């Protein structure tokens, strides 16, 4: 009995050991659960990009993503939109990995701030980042003056930039100092190189991927997304007040594309498109005003104008430029109503062109109106105005097409013989008239005649 119980115990132990080994082997062969969300941020950073990132962050969180890869390839953009994206990243309860890719991509200007705000930062080979000096709509952002011989540079660990000199613009210095403090705070939060971050803002410094990794600006260089997940695996990141160890190796990647609303906003918030919508709206309403009842120009113009105005309130608009454009339109309308031989029209075209150039700030990456579009519209307006002026001047020397003047010098043909001192029927300008000879001579049937004057219902003619 004792041997039987021992045998049963040995068999049970062997079975349990085998089950455990099979379970371990199965766990090793089973891919890890969960996925990583990938959000692509390409092109200028504006309102549409900020809304896209916000919505896709929320969607990835609802779907249960283990992490988010924010792939960057941007020349920069608007500060307000950049700050919205960074606010979403800082509030995220899942790790965000900033990744500049593919090869040849960049994270310039606003993209540098976003990369610094990422929990982990990576770059593909042959990419670069930097040139994060802010651009103010009010003028040029001041750059640091070169050091005088014998003077030492300020400590790179200083959190406060040197005070502005009396000659520098105070408003621009406020923008610069605020940008420096902002990127330094992000660098300190993520444990990255704050000194170089200040250089990127103050002196528009740039780095390649390998240089950025060596200077602790990014965490690592990765050729593709799979390598990013592999190198991120096992790293610790801070999510709020807690430290989290990432387990991302082998996870699948799910791409989150922009929706139709984001694509639509991306189109209309392109400054060139917004500008053309304004032009189309104004021309449509003008055509409807001068041709009442046409309907289509008025309806299409109103839609284009409203969409253009909606886009303007999302973009950094220079209101002096907008006012000049409105003045230009008013002067052109005044020229049409009260012709002044082109004085008001030329002034309107000049005001509209200058306002168009001033409307958006071309130094903000991706947020300037194409100068070629403005030049083309200005040339078309000048040619059109010139053509209208030429037609007006020509009309002054043109013969009248109504009243007696319509008949003078018109040719005709006698329908019967015209006796000397008598009357006869003739066809002139498609009409039958009683005619008399101006010279009093007799004219045969079918003779060619020319009208000279009218006296009541009688035309006085002469042989042609």
UniProtKB/TrEMBL annotation:
Residue ranges, compositional bias (Low complexity) = 149-159
Which segments constitute the NfeD-like C-terminal domain?
406-462
- UniProt-listed PROSITE patterns: PROKAR_LIPOPROTEIN (PS51257)
Main subcellular localization, coarse class?
Answer: membrane
Give the protein name, as stated in the record: Nodulation protein NfeD
Q: Where is the NfeD1b N-terminal domain?
A: 43-140
- Which keywords, in A-to-Z order, does the entry hold? Membrane, Signal, Transmembrane, Transmembrane helix
InterPro entries noted in UniProt: ClpP/crotonase-like_dom_sf (IPR029045), Membrane_assoc_protease (IPR052165), NA-bd_OB-fold (IPR012340), NfeD-like_C (IPR002810), NfeD1b_N (IPR056738), NfeD_membrane (IPR056739)
The reply on keyword Transmembrane helix is: yes
Where it sits in the cell: the answer is: Membrane
Leader sequence range is 1-27
Using the UniProt annotation, give all residue ranges assigned to the region (Disordered).
135-170
Recorded topology in the membrane: Multi-pass membrane protein
Q: Which PANTHER family match?
A: INNER MEMBRANE PROTEIN YBBJ, NODULATION COMPETITIVENESS PROTEIN NFED
């Amino acid at each position: 009995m004792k041997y039987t119980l021992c045998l049963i115990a040995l068999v049970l132990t062997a079975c349990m050991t085998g089950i455990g080994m099979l379970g371990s082997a199965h766990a090793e062969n089973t891919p890890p659960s969960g996925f990583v969300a990938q959000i692509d941020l390409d092109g200028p950073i504006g309102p549409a990009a900020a809304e896209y990132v916000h919505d896709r962050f929320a969607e990835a969180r609802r779907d249960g993503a283990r992490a988010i890869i924010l792939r960057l390839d941007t020349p920069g953009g608007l500060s307000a939109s950049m700050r919205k994206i960074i606010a979403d990243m800082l509030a995220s309860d899942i790790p965000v990995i900033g990744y500049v890719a593919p090869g040849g991509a960049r994270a310039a200007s606003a993209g540098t701030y976003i990369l610094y705000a990422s929990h982990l930062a990576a770059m593909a080979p042959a990419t670069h980042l930097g040139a994060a000096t802010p651009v103010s709509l009010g003028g040029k952002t001041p750059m640091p003056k070169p050091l005088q011989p014998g003077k030492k540079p300020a400590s790179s660990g200083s959190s406060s930039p040197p005070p502005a000199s009396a000659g520098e613009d105070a408003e621009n210095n406020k923008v610069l100092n605020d940008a420096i403090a902002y990127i330094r705070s992000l660098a300190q939060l993520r444990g990255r190189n704050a000194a170089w971050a200040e250089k990127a803002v103050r002196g528009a410094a740039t780095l390649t991927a390998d240089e950025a990794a060596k200077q602790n600006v990014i965490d690592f260089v990765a050729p593709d997304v799979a390598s990013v997940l592999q190198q991120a695996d096992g790293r610790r990141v801070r999510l709020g007040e807690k430290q989290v160890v990432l387990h991302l190796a082998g996870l699948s990647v799910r791409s989150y594309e922009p929706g139709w609303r984001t694509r639509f906003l991306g189109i209309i918030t392109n400054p060139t498109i917004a500008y053309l919508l304004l032009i189309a709206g104004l021309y449509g309403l003008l055509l409807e005003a001068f041709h009442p009842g046409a309907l289509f120009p008025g309806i299409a113009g109103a839609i284009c104008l409203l969409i253009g105005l909606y886009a303007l309130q999302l973009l950094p608009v220079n209101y002096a430029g907008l006012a000049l454009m409105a003045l230009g339109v008013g002067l052109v309308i005044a020229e049409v109503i009260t012709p002044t031989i082109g004085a008001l029209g030329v002034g309107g075209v000049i005001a509209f062109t200058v306002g168009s150039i001033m409307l958006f700030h071309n130094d903000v990456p991706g947020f300037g109106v194409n100068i070629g579009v403005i030049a083309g519209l200005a040339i078309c307006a000048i040619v059109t105005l010139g053509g209208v002026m030429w037609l007006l001047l020509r009309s002054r020397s043109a013969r009248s097409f109504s009243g007696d003047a319509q008949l003078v010098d018109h040719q005709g043909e006698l329908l019967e013989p015209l006796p000397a001192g008598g009357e006869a029927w003739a066809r002139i300008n498609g009409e039958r008239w009683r005619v008399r000879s101006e010279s009093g001579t007799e004219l045969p049937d079918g003779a060619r005649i020319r009208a000279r004057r009218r006296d009541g219902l009688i035309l006085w003619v002469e042989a042609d």
